């Protein structure tokens, strides 16, 4: 009797399955995404993983539990079925743990003999290393230079670690000494549409924050970067853009390259962080000369041409302060006479045209517009910049009159 009952139950549960198999002739077609009329270029809305890495499109949905990797140079995301314990050959050689390594300070066995007539000792450039070295810092640099990470979160964590440590004199110098890391950071900072995981700081903004942190109040780090600056910029092309760095690094501060039409608040934050990098770099005379020759001031002026609202106020103040501190305010260490050149101030009518709006002679117009719009007080950066520009223009006019005589 028990066997008969069990047989009846088995038949009851098997019947729907058999009915389903008999009625279905083929599996349903997956939901497709098609950007063109060519069916061959369509792909499933939900990513279909295999045992091999495949490209993940930006508008595809990723199932949970996959092995995902991202190339930070090109922005290409790939995924496959995750195999526990499997290692990615492209990451071979990168450290996987986050242990702390003890670094023993070098011991001096004798007091050095100073030769007669030797130059006076300078403390600038002597940076004492920490007692404990950070493996997370080393791991972050290697990940940045390799261009390949297993997950977007891994890159977010690495950039966050580098940003935190970049403000330290020692680690800031270590970043500056690594020309490949500086190249990678400059390329990441200059890249358009940098991919970012939800809720994380955009990667181009993080790269800028790392560079700004490394250079701020760290003359030894700036000296290291200046030593390789021609090689960094002359011929090197970023893999993600194919353009030489000397074309993209300064234009990276332009609002149009930071998504000003989509999320103005985030675009302004990106621009502000990149202006901070420019401010740190041009403290060095040779880099400052290249900045002026390669159109850096034009890109900077475009920051002042953004809409007059609170969203862009911080970025505009950063740009205006850069000009004051480096070119017009001698008390802040500016070298006078390098900018503006002898070109004359243009009329307001000329500066309102597309042909002349970014001309050097229109700085006065855009600064005065901000000053009037914000009702700037005596200590405001826009009023100070307006007054300094007026002083320079008057001096230039007198010099031209003297030359004519």
Structure overview:
The protein has 405 residues and is α+β, with helices and mostly antiparallel strands. Among the domains are: 41-80, no CATH class; 135-303, Leucine-rich Repeat Variant, CATH 1.25.10. 49% of the residues lie in helices and 6% in strands. It has 15 helices and eight strands. A hairpin with a 5-residue loop joins β4 (66-71) and β5 (77-81). α2 (135-146) crosses α5. The chain is globular, with a radius of gyration of 29 Å. It starts with a helix and ends with a helix. Mean pLDDT is 81; it is low at 1-28 and 95-111.
List keywords for this structure.
405 residues; 4-stranded antiparallel beta sheet; 49% helix; globular; alpha+beta; disordered N terminus; single chain; Leucine-rich Repeat Variant; 8 strands; two-stranded antiparallel ribbon
């Amino acid at each position: 009797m028990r066997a008969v009952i069990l047989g009846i139950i088995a038949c009851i549960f098997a019947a729907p399955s058999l009915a389903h198999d008999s009625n279905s002739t083929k599996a349903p077609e997956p939901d497709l995404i098609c950007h063109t009329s060519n069916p061959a270029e369509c792909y499933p809305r939900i990513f279909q993983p295999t045992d091999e890495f495949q490209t993940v499109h930006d508008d595809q949905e990723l199932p949970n539990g996959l092995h995902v990797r991202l190339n930070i140079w090109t922005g290409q995301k790939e995924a496959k079925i995750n195999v526990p314990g499997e290692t990615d050959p492209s990451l071979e050689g990168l450290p996987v743990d986050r242990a702390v390594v003890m670094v023993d300070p070098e011991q001096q066995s004798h007091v050095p003999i100073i030769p007669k007539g030797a130059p006076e000792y300078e403390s600038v450039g002597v940076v004492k290393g920490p007692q404990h070295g950070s493996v997370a810092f080393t791991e972050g640099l290697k990940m940045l230079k390799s261009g390949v990470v297993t997950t977007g979160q891994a890159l977010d964590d690495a950039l966050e670690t580098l940003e935190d440590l970049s403000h330290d004199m020692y680690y800031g110098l270590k970043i500056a000494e690594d020309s490949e890391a500086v190249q990678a950071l400059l390329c990441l900072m200059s890249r358009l549409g940098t991919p970012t995981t939800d809720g994380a700081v955009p990667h181009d903004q993080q790269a800028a924050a790392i560079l700004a942190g490394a250079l701020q109040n760290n003359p030894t780090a700036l000296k290291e970067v200046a030593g390789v600056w021609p090689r960094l910029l002359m011929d090197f092309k970023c893999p993600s853009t194919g353009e030489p760095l000397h074309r993209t690094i300064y234009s990276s501060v332009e609002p149009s390259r930071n998504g000003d039409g989509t999320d103005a608040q985030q675009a302004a934050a990106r621009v502000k962080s990149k202006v901070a990098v420019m401010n740190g770099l041009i403290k060095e005379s040779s880099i400052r000369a290249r900045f002026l020759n390669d159109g850096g001031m034009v890109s900077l002026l475009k920051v002042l041409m953004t809409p007059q609202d609170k969203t862009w106020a911080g970025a505009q103040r950063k740009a205006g302060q850069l000009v004051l501190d480096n070119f017009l305010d001698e008390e802040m260490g500016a070298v006078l006479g390098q900018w503006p050149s002898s070109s004359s101030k243009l009329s307001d009518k000329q500066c309102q045209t597309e042909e002349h709006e970014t001309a050097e002679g229109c700085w006065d117009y855009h600064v005065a517009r901000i000053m009037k719009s914000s009702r700037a007080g005596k200590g405001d950066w826009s009023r100070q910049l307006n007054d300094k520009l007026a002083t320079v223009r008057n001096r230039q006019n007198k010099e031209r009159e003297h030359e004519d005589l």
